[in-house]
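User: My collaborator and I are trying to settle a disagreement about how two of our proteins should look. Neither of us wants to argue from intuition anymore, so we agreed to look at predicted structures for both before our next call. Could you fold the first one, then the second, and keep them clearly separated?

Assistant: That sounds like a sensible way to settle it. I'll keep them separate. The first protein:
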Amino acid sequence: MLQIKTFTPEQVAEILQLSKNTIYELIKRGEIIAKKYGKVYRIPQSSISFVFSGMDEDILKAQKEDEKQLIKVNKIVKDVRKKLWEKSKSS
């Protein structure tokens, strides 16, 4: 069975040296990803990596992949603009 390390908001508050209310506010704003089971939240260990990266680990990975794709997109846009410019000059 897959076991993922999770924390309570109180534990995360202690780890990050923040108040419990701050942790609940970060959860509410989506800055800490948490799952609510009944009346209690559980926070996966990967979610508190936002402290170092400013965002959740999965989102950070997706952003890095998007940035790689931007290089390709910029090249395509540049090539299209060049072709359009050349076409407009010959018209």
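The second protein, kept apart from the first:
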Amino acid sequence: MSVFQRMSSVFQQKVNSALDKAEDPQQALDFSYEKQLEALQQVRRNVADVLTSEKRLELQAAQLKQNQSKLQAQAQAALQQGREDLARLALSRAQEAQSQLAGLGQQIEQMKDQEQKLELMAQKLQAKVEAFRTQKETIKAQYSAAQASTKIGEAVTGISEQMADVNLMVERAQNKTTQMQARAAAIDDLVASGTLDQIGAGSTDDIDRQLASGTTKITVDSQLAEMKRQLAAGSVAPQLSSSSAVVRIQGDDQYRLQKADRDQLDRFDADLVAAIRAGDESAFRGKLHEVLEFVKTKGERVLATQLPTSDVVLPSEDMTLAEAKEILADVPAGQRA
């Protein structure tokens, strides 16, 4: 094989491969169906042309018959007038017309046979086209279903190009998130240990943080002890000042109650202690909620910059009945109401 033949063969292979990739089966089927429709239309036009020629021949035959009848009449008229020569001429022309009529009859019969053959061919071709149309639609539906199934399978398994890119992006995002979480945890550990100090006016070092933690613990312990003393005494606000009282809700702010509200606060306290000693969870919850709402509604919130000494400390609303009983149990018997 010569170099040029090999180059031609390789070129044809490349072209066939490119055409095979570019060819769409659905478009190819539609194109074949259109070609078959065009062939069917051509056959029908041929049938129409044959029928037209047949009609033209029939018209010519009818005209020759009329001429023949006319010549026969002319021959008779010539004989009546004693013109035998004219009669002979008319009969000769009538005989020629008869010969032409015989030829036209044969041609008309041939046209009819051809017309029947073309009509039969058109019917067969039409049936073939209809069958191909049904087959075409079936193949297109199967191809579409197979194509959709392939795309779904590639998307689910992640082997398609788009899903592969998505998987890579998700993996990179997860890696970055894990890295940032680890960095944030490391910085929190360094700040908690005092290795790194916070920046700004409110920044503190490790000694300040330890001192603040100790102060907070002392404050909480003192408030808890005050609550125990009040609960054991059976009154929320014993020996309050004559003008107003400062009430702190544990975990919340301080509120200043007027003198007119102290009696109601005492009644709430008595009901709350009674519910604790009776072990009534529902009553305890209800009274605790009522007393806290009463303080928040009737009292005036104390500014954070003032921080006066609390006359009464109330538990937070999330305190359980068991914790309240434990506080009463820790109070010495001599101090219980």
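Some points you might bring to the call about the second protein. Helices lie at 3-22, 25-80, 84-157, 161-193, 206-233, 262-278, 281-298, 321-330. Residues 275 and 283 are 6 Å apart (CA to CA).
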